[in-house]
């Protein structure tokens, strides 16, 4: 029998994170496109980001039939947060800048690339990236490359750059509690043996 689950954060009610989830305003609109394989993941950080940001939307799927509507949001210019040779590093807004609709694919690198392949409108968006050097706090798995961040970390870092000096650090509080809970559940000895000599970034 499955354990009772919080309807909002989808965590077991005994480990509900809602008390730690902030309610942050942002000039940037964040659109999270989540691969279905991520929905049931214990560390669903895209959901945490969507819950913590008032100006965010989470859409689950592989082919997004209404993508044109989602991307053509009046008052925003859509940009895809995803690596590419011609991707522009994010910079702080100037007062006259139109805010971004920051589109963030959520999934493994392979699944995220599949989302781009299946949704040509998504793949055609101008791309933006974060400066290298971000250190992930995601201590439960090894990063595929230096600077690889979880979804909520990438969004937090992006907003910190775009909307400086506003702090979006509170977005990471439920994420950090989630990581601590996972480590506690596996036991410190197993964590050290499996992950103690690894670090992300």
From TrEMBL:
Top-rank taxon, per record: Bacteria
Gene Ontology molecular function: tRNA-uridine aminocarboxypropyltransferase activity
A UniProt-annotated Pfam family: DTW
One GO process term, biological-process aspect: tRNA processing
Enzyme Commission (EC) number: 2.5.1.25
Annotated InterPro entries: DTW (IPR005636), DTWD2/TAPT (IPR039262)
Keywords: S-adenosyl-L-methionine, Transferase, tRNA processing
Residues in DTW domain copies: 2-187
Family statement drawn from the similarity comment of this UniProt entry: Belongs to the TDD superfamily. DTWD2 family.
Protein name in the entry: tRNA-uridine aminocarboxypropyltransferase
Organism: Pseudomonas cedrina subsp. cedrina
